[in-house]
C-alpha cells in the first residue's frame, strides 16, 4: 500500500497534469484575430467638406481651418476664401473665387499674374481638369510661406484656376519644398473627391 506522502505526490502530479492540459487547451483556442490590439483601431474615412459651389473630402490627418479667422486672414488675397485645409507638415490647400470672373482665354494670364514677385522655377501653364471642368495649372518656388509655416523655408506651390457657374475658382497648394510631394498626394485626394454644385 502506498504511503500517504506517495499518495499526496500522485494527487499533486495528477492535478498538475490536469492544470497543464487545461491551460494548453485554452491557448490553443486563442487566434490572432481575437487579440484586443488587432481590431481596436476603427477605420476612419476622410471627412466631407461642403464649400460654396463644390464638395470634396478632407484627407486623413488634415485639418479644416476654413472658419479660423487668422488662417483666413493669412490666406486672403484677391477674391473670397472658400476653403483652407492644412496638412500635418504645414502644407496648405486654399480654394477661393477670384474677385471678378476671368474669361476662359485669359486664365493663363490671370494665373501668372498672381504668382508672388521673386518666385523661381515657374512652369509654363498646363491644362488641368477638375471634375470635368478645364482650366490651367502652374507650379513654382518662392520664399513666401503658407500660414503656419516657418519663415525662411523654401516653399513649393501648385496653383490652378478653372471657370465654373460664372465664377473663377483658384485652388492652390503651398508646402515646404521638402514635403511638397507628400502634400501634393493630399491635394490629389482633394481633387479626386471634388464635385461641383
Query: What is the straight-line distance between the termini?
Result: 95 Å
Count of β-strands: 10
Query: Shape, please?
Result: globular
Unreliable segments of 5+ consecutive residues:
1-43
* Number of structurally distinct domains: 2
Order of strands in the sheet with most strands: 3-4-5-9-8-7-6
CATH fold call of the largest domain: Protein Transport Mog1p, Chain A
User: What's the helix count?
Assistant: 4
* Oligomer kind: single chain
- The CATH superfamily of the largest domain is known as Mog1/PsbP, alpha/beta/alpha sandwich
Reading off the top of the CATH hierarchy, the class of the largest domain is best stated as Alpha Beta
Please identify, by name, the CATH architecture of the largest domain. Answer: 3-Layer(aba) Sandwich
Radius of gyration: 30 Å
Question: SSE string, helix = H, strand = E?
Answer: HEEEHEEHEEEEHE
Major sheet: 7 strands, antiparallel
Q: Tell me what portion of residues adopts beta-strand conformation.
A: 25-35%
Could you tell me the mean pLDDT? 81
Q: Structural class given helices, strands, pairing?
A: alpha+beta
Describe this structure as you would to a colleague:
There is one protein chain. Helices cover 27% and strands 31% of the residues. The protein is α+β, with helices and mostly antiparallel strands and 197 residues long. It has 2 domains: 4-34; 47-196, Mog1/PsbP, alpha/beta/alpha sandwich (Protein Transport Mog1p, Chain A). A 7-stranded antiparallel sheet has the order 3-4-5-9-8-7-6, with helices on both faces. A 3-stranded antiparallel sheet has the order 1-2-10. The chain is globular, with a radius of gyration of 30 Å. The relative contact order is 0.16. Mean pLDDT is 81; it is low at 1-43.
